[in-house]
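Subject: Re: docking follow-up (guanosine-5'-triphosphate)

Dear J.,

Thanks for your patience while I sorted out the input files. As discussed at Tuesday's group meeting, I've set up the holo structure prediction with guanosine-5'-triphosphate included as the bound ligand rather than trying to dock it afterwards. The sequence and the ligand SMILES I used are pasted below, so you can double-check that they match what you have on your end before we go further.
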Amino acid sequence: MDTKDLAERIAAGERRALARGITLVESGRADHRAQATEVLAALPRDRQALRIGLSGTPGVGKSTFIEAFGMTLVQAGLRVAVLAVDPSSARSGGSILGDKTRMDRLSREPAAFIRPSPSQTHLGGVARRTREAVALCEGAGFDVVLIETVGVGQSETVVAQMSDLFLLLLAPAGGDELQGVKRGIMEMADMILINKADGDLKPAATRTCADYAGALRLLRKRPQDPDGFPKAMMVSAMTGEGLDVAWADMQALMDWRRQNSFFAATRAAQARYWFEEDVRAVLLSKLETRTAKAAMQRFGTAVAEGALDPATAALDMLSTLDANFGDGRVDPERDSP
Ligand SMILES: Nc1nc2c(ncn2[C@@H]2O[C@H](COP(=O)(O)OP(=O)(O)OP(=O)(O)O)[C@@H](O)[C@H]2O)c(=O)[nH]1
Ligand SMILES: [Mg+2]
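The structure tokens for the complex came back this morning:
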């Protein structure tokens, strides 16, 4: 399939073509990357999906939530794409199998597209690929793109920085502590959803929700939030309770941000962030090439043996890098050992 044809099929919303496009985006092969870039450039530019980031620790109910929430959106007449950012290869075969059963209805829905995450090791590469996959989904005319991540390491930041709306999914806590959720992650959340607020877990969920509502009030007010946001609320992905209210709140927040120009401002700031991140990533990747590693080793030994002082060696090392990679054309994923 040639590039133009593929772009046209994606723009027409053909799922098979979209899947093929994402495969190109995810590929490490230079020819695939080149084709991916062409496809992206050939897609319509006037389409915009609502990008919703979703983070939560393993077992909190992300897959169950996506299935139920995704169906809510589909029933509201929206087309929904689901992508996942998985920075580690931690995802077990079990959870992929689990997703098949947990997203059973959504995965059979013609208005939905679910793309399981490839296992990756490089978070930097994952970020770019996911951004491009989001762009493909937008070009394919999806109304909502859900980007899921397991809450480990830096992946929340990656997802939050490519989302219009960032949801943090939590489970009801037994004790009265705040489940060790890092302040930085709370600060990224637009809404905290306490999942599993059903059956025996309802009382614990109610307490947890109150705790987090309190904790959110203590955070510094962000300009992009109207009164009442960020908010904590209870949902049950299993029974579906609270999902309509959560979606109504999300829409209210997005409407407010659009009317007050925060929506566009956030996307602009994100674009700048990714530009700077990509520059940093390419610079750092220059240290990962074989030549650079050998030079690092050489200068490191010289410093360790006292033949060079660290500052001089660092300058020499940087000159070596400039001499070898002065044109900046180092592909972080290909030119590494
Ligand atoms: N009671 C109750 N159980 C739930 C709810 N949502 C999910 N569960 C259960 O919690 C377990 C984990 O759910 P998943 O949806 O697989 O969780 P996940 O966050 O996707 O887990 P990973 O993919 O492993 O990170 C399953 O046994 C679900 O049935 C809920 O709203 N209420
Ligand atoms: Mg899951």
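A couple of observations from a first look. The chain has two domains: 1-44, 47-260. The mean pLDDT is 88.

Let me know if you'd like me to rerun anything.

Best regards,
T.
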